[in-house]
Amino acid sequence: MKNPPILISVIGFFALLAGFGFLFYGLRVLGFDWFGLFGDLERYEGVGLWGWFAVLGGVAWILTAGGLWALQPWARTVAQVVAGISLFEAVLAFIQFPGSGLGFSMSLLPLVILWYLSSAEVKEAFGVADIPERI
Asked: What is the pTM assigned to this prediction?
């Protein structure tokens, strides 16, 4: 198994952090009190459903991080979809907060990630593109 490009490793690391964050948050919302460390969580209606969504999202992010590190093509696709959704959120911020620069700043990282994941080097690493032979 070959090593992933360094920036793929970095993106995978941040995906893993997001996964653990969602997982721990979801478990906390579901009532796991971390052995009494944080005290009791107030009871709200419908919190359990959102807790399960957070747990499932956390597991999905952890699997995606592993997929990125293992150079699985589906993980690259997941990263591109999430970056595309983030870019759409940036467009909404352009509309909601005109002239503030918030939408522009929100669009920078998703654009860089989409550009990087579409580069020939990354496509070759994930095995999704045939590189033409040089003569």
From this structure: 0.78
